[in-house]
Design goal:
With about 350 residues, the chain is α/β, with parallel strands linked by helices. Helix 1 packs across helix 2, helix 2 packs across helix 3 and helix 10 packs across helix 11. It is elongated and about 105 Å long.
């Protein structure tokens, strides 16, 4: 179920209120004409309100000698009561149906989304998307979610235990991507249920972002090359990952247990991370030993050189250069410290 546009949520209430205002204005103008010049605007307003609310107070403008005034009052009373009942009914429905709560929630989400930058946009909060969100939450990374199904989007908050910036809409729509801040995003994760939709999201995100990293879920392996050509940096097959995991359980169970323990430790948030040394970084020209002496607490596993060469377990005298990528283990505190070091001036 897609999120109804904000105009659809308030249109009925707005029309009902506009009708009440129109009836009040007609009543004030009518009584001004009937009572002029003896009676003024305040008298006309008073007559209009007591007529529309049927409170039964005494008349300020004497209509005993004005048949036309009495006819006008009858017409105003009939139309006014109908307009008020219509407005009260619309207002009641607006609150009872949860539309007011939804409107407040959506405005709150909009404010949070505007503040995001260098975040990750997760397209789809289904069975795969919710695990993506859990991992981003555990590792304390900023992210936003796009989900077309309103019930599923609200269920996400209950599943995660916290409220995350969410846009309810179709991720294949450019406007929805823009509302999620895709133009300011660091990465886009496309995990909607349909491979063709993932292809469209990847293409749209690539056009809107330019250099953001785009990762797509793909069930049908024959669609993977098309999704890559559409703009995805990586295509992940759940079937392939599941198969590799099952084999690993059979031939390297201890390694799998170690990685699972790392992923389950939600408090420490220990993960295998990577970071690229940018131009102007203090690490440029230093050695691996100097990096370790910075006291970040990282455990360096490997270096991926700028020319795509890999150096596993690099020694302390190995030099670091711009565009080298550090592959290490650490929690959120370690990751932030390393990100400060690799960032250019």
């Amino acid at each position: 179920m897609a999120e109804p546009p904000i105009d659809d949520l308030t249109r009925t209430l707005g029309r009902s209120f506009a009708l009440v205002v129109a009836v009040v204005c007609v009543g004030v103008v009518g009584y001004l004409i009937i009572g002029w010049p003896e009676y003024g605007v305040l008298d006309a307003v008073y007559m209009t309100i007591i007529t529309l609310t049927t409170v039964g107070y005494g008349e300020i403008i004497d209509l005993s000698a004005s048949p036309g005034g009495r006819v006008f009052t009858v017409l105003l009373l009939v139309s006014g009561v109908g307009s008020f009942l219509n407005f009260v009914s619309a207002l009641t429905a607006f609150w009872v149906d949860g539309q007011a709560h939804h409107l407040l929630w959506r405005n709150r989400m909009s404010r949070q989304l505007v503040q995001l930058s260098d975040h990750i946009v997760v397209c789809g909060a289904g069975d795969t998307g919710i695990w993506v969100c859990r991992e981003l939450l555990d590792t304390k990374r900023p992210f936003a979610v796009i989900e077309a199904n309103a019930e599923r989007a609200h269920r996400l908050r209950r599943e995660l235990g916290v409220e995350v910036p969410t846009v309810i809409g179709d991720a294949t729509d450019d406007d929805v991507l823009i509302r999620a801040g895709v133009e300011r995003a660091e990465s886009v994760v496309c995990c909607v249920s349909n491979d063709k939709d993932n292809l469209i999201v990847a293409l749209s995100a690539r056009i809107l972002t330019g250099d953001a990293r785009i990762i797509c879920r793909c069930v049908d392996e024959s669609m993977a090359p098309k999704i890559r050509r559409a703009g995805a940096d990586q295509v992940v097959s759940p079937n392939r990952i599941g198969g590799l995991r099952m084999v690993s359980e059979a031939i390297r169970p201890a390694a799998v247990v170690y990685l699972d323990r790392m992923l389950r430790d939600r408090d420490a948030g220990m993960r295998v991370e990577s970071a690229r040394i940018e131009a102007g970084s203090t690490l440029d020209g230093q050695t691996v030993g100097a990096l370790r002496r910075h006291g970040t607490g990282l455990q360096l596993l490997a270096l991926r050189r700028a020319d795509d060469r890999w150096e596993d377990a690099p020694p302390d005298d190995a030099s670091l250069q711009v565009n080298d990528q550090l592959v290490y283990t650490g929690g959120p505190v370690v990751r932030k410290a390393v990100e400060r070091l690799v960032r250019g001036g």
